[in-house]
C-alpha cells in the first residue's frame, strides 16, 4: 500500500496551485513539480557539499524566485556559491545528527519567522529534518529530492522522512522510484556526455599539474587517497591538495584545508588531471567545468564515511564514461596523465 501523504482533497496540502495562485502540494512527476515550483519563493535547506551543490542546481532548474532563502552551514563553498543570495547560516549538523538537526530547526525558525515562503525544499542530509520541522510549523508544503548519490534506496534522512506526512519525496533514479511514498523525479546525471578533448592528451614527458580534492566532510579522513597520489607522482609533477580534515605535513606542493569556489574552479579547469573522492558536489562541479575526474571513493570499512554511497556514485558515473574509477591500490601513475576526453553538458555548444 502506498504511503499516505495526508493530502486529502480538503487538506491545505492538497495537490496543485489554488485559485488564488498559492502553492499547496506539488503533484505528479517531474513536469508537474517544475510547473508547481516555477516562480515561487522557497526556503532551501541543505548541508554543505553535494547537498548544497544539488539544491542550487534545482533552484536554477525550477526557476525559483531570486529572493528565495538558502539555509546551510558556514564554509568556503557556501560563501562562494551563495554570494549575493539570501542565506541563513546554521550550526553544523553531522550525518545522522538528529539532535543537532532539531537545534538547527529552532534557529532556522527564529531567523526566518518574519519571512513568507511558498514552499520548503531540501536535498538533505540530516538538516532535511530541520526543514521538515519548519514546513510543519508554518504549514508549508515541503519537497524533498533525494541525493543523486542514492541509487538503491533513500538515505537515512530519506527513510525518516518517508514515514512522515505532508511531504513530497522524489528519487533521481528509476530503480527505486516506485518505493511507497516516493515518486520519479529528474536526475542531474542525465545532463552530461563524454566527448573528445580539444587539447592535447599527452605532455611528452613534462611534469604534470595535479589537483587533489577530498571535500569538506567531517570528521572523516581520507589518507588512502592522499598516499596513493603521493606515491605515484613523477619528478617534475606539481600538485595542489585540498584536504579538508585530512591534515598532513608530509606532502609536496601546495596544501589547503578548504578553497573558495573560484579557486577550486580554476584548479579543476587548469590542471592536467583532477583526482577526487566521490562526493556529489565535487563531481557535479567538475562535470560542469567540462572535466572528467579520476575518482577514488571513500569506504565505510576504512572509516572514511558513514556508508558506501560514494562507491555507487562512482560506479554509475564510470559506467556512463563520465569519470575514471579507481581504488587506492588500482591507481597508477599513468592515470595521472591528461585523459584526452572532456565532458559536455546538454545544451552547451561544442567547444
UniProtKB/TrEMBL annotation:
Residues 266-318 form the Glycosyl transferase family 28 C-terminal domain. InterPro entries: Glyco_trans_28_C. Keywords: Transferase. It holds the Pfam family Glyco_tran_28_C. GO terms for molecular function: hexosyltransferase activity. Residues 1-25 are annotated as: Disordered. This is UDP-N-acetylglucosamine transferase subunit ALG13. It comes from Blastococcus xanthinilyticus.
